[in-house]
User: Fold these one by one.
Assistant:
Number 1:
Amino acid sequence: MNIQIRPYQHSDKPQLMSLLKRNIPDYFAPSEEADFAEYLDHHREYYFVVEVDGIVLGSGGFNLTEDRKTAKISWDLFNPESQGKRLGSALTRFRIQQIQSIEGIDLISVRTSQLVYPFYQKFGFETTAIVKDYWDIGFDLVQMERPLHHAIDKPESE
């Protein structure tokens, strides 16, 4: 399996929108489709695509806060059939390495759901807030963060 993580290109958008739709309603609310399109067009800073043997199977990125002290992990999504194959772990480790190369950042945060937060715990993220039905009914916000430099940067399992 040849995994490549590369910068997002505008030509990736149709494939990523299709991947998002494949994750609705299990991991994303239908209302998030327009939000993702808006993010890709106007708000992404550092966004990456995961390819395996030349096929786009996932994506995810991060943005910096205005003071450039916090990196916010954003919009992770994967082909449902490729989940559990360590692609999410590879992408998360890659982003942490990218973030570590940017001067001045000391915190990484992620806003996720009650469905996915255990994945981020494996990377040392700790829950700081929960807001019920934040994303949509049945999709709670779980706010998590961790210091940039953390002992758990290479989890053994996904």
Number 2:
Amino acid sequence: MSKHSRYERIRTPLAVMATASVATALIATSVAPASAGKAPSLQTRRPTVVLVHGAFADSTSWNGVVKELKREGYPVVAAANPLRGLSGDAAYVKELLAGIDGPVVLAGHSYGGAVISNAAYGSEKVKALVYVAAFVPDEGESALDLAAKFEGSTLGEALCPPVPVTLPDGSQGADLYIDQKKFPRQFAADVPENTAELMAVTQRPVTNVALEEKSSEPAWKTTPTWALVATEDLNIPREAQLFMAERAKAHTVEVRASHAVTVSRPNEVAQIIQEAARTVR
């Protein structure tokens, strides 16, 4: 397959989404259980939940999930995923993990799933992985490879023409965006329209380089894994999500939701993260 036709495959089933929001932020919060009069002991302290967004989004796409987790007393960090390249993005998250005390539950949405698979490899802190409508790549696979494996994604039809840019490492690539007019239906069909329109305006691009980069050895082969499958996803089809979850032997739940499940169904997302967290000792 030529490089040109391979690139066209990105634009067809490409499925590397995450919900776009209003700012890029790093949210770090440690919250004691509401019933505690002082900080919990090391023996009773809950694991820190680290959330990694995917393409066309920022960390505030997790806001509803963060609210639920904090209510239950979990320390939460929502990472600002650079979206520049898989190895670099994973290295950034790995550095973030290094600064956290105690055990971690690491969750990723969409392309963020590929990032956490690489960032958690070899980490003694990460005790559980949670994939939320996410890519779960094996070694040598890219998001592009997995997107092309199953039919059903309509993302390619919703993309704006890519704009060539010079990437930070000096290489040539393309920043990919979703057409703002097509964004609500394609990405966030079950999100209130006014919210989806704001998400469309504030979306952050992902590079084609990030989607083409092959994964290294993934952490899910040695770390307990959970997966939430969004059954109405137009970016990563249900069949693709189920294939990856079954291959990873993940504890899996299906939720009727769009790709923007972290925004439209934050309670269900928080529940599966808490299920994973309850196994951490």
Number 3:
Amino acid sequence: MSSNFLAALEARRSIYEINNNSPISDGKIVEIINATIKHCPSAFNSQTTRVLVLLGPEHEKLWRDIVKPAVKAVAPVESWAESEQNLSSFQSGYGTILFYEDPKVIAKFQELVPLFADQMPRWSEHANGMNTLAAWTALELEGLGASLQHYNPLIDQKVASTWQVPEEWLLKSQLVFGGRSGEPGAREYDPISERVLVHGAQKKKSTQ
């Protein structure tokens, strides 16, 4: 099981060449998201993460009618053509998962655990990151390509009004996914010896 999990982490990549075909059903996609949201850890089991799942035409609406106009309104004229091309590539996908945090839940746990009140917002970010990675990896295992985008806060209010998202929810990221039309390039890694410190490890004793 451990080796399968590590292989899944290694396989997960940012895939930008995607299409509007999905190798799995909408029901399976929702099942995956429900499972990751249910089982991912959070500080004091606070369960602060929320998601909005947009599939098919609703996904297209997000990128065509909300993200593109919002970005165009603030993008330099000379860079809009490139930005529009990127946004069109996201629009051509199959779905988007928008990850949120619920500040009401954070505030509740700040009251319940006052000793760590100042840390709860930070820990909620940790939970959000774990939920994002879990969903991303699970979709990868089903043959879908995905990449993580951040067009908040430009799109927050319009998204909330369009899909009846509670206005107090804080948008953190957008995981856009679809069928894979291409493969990622080689990934470069910094030396692990500079990123991981280990003390106290013992060599496995040999048996006679």
Number 4:
Amino acid sequence: MMMTLRTALCASLAAFLVGCAAQPETHYYDLMAQSEASDARLTESVTLGIGPVSLPQMLDRPNIVVRKGGTQVNVANFHIWAGELEPVFTRVLAENVSLQLKHDAVWPSPWDNRFRPEYQVRIFVDRFSGELKGPVSLSLSWTLLADYGQRVVTTQRYRSVLHSDGSYQAYVQALNGLLEGFSGELASELAQSIPQK
């Protein structure tokens, strides 16, 4: 009886250890600023804030979310964002716009209570996702506010699509490329919409 119990415990322990050893490695991903300077410029005295940014609720999780076609989505167990997606999205967009405009006074939200930028860009993202092997899209609306958030200057929509080749690395690269593309479009529009003092 004791021998049978010991054998059963050893078998269970061995199965547990094999299960642990077989668990896939967890991979972590980040978005990166990668824009280059354009011809668009802002007056040096202008302060510009990027945010707040509102992302779809289904993306408010550490796991990377991909679409499976139709209304189905897949939440990856072992492919994880290295940080919270919304502040990372905001930070990278602000860095890209700063690089594009060669303008240092571009600040991602949230801002210190003692400081508010003169111009602010609020962004409502409808989609920042796609298929692991197929189209990946960024769809959003953005509003430029002046007078420290008191006056609407312009509201515009933006949509772009890139393709992923089936790996999570390629999927994140497509998302990064979409964000870079929007950064360039936004920088160009801001240079036209914000008066040169």
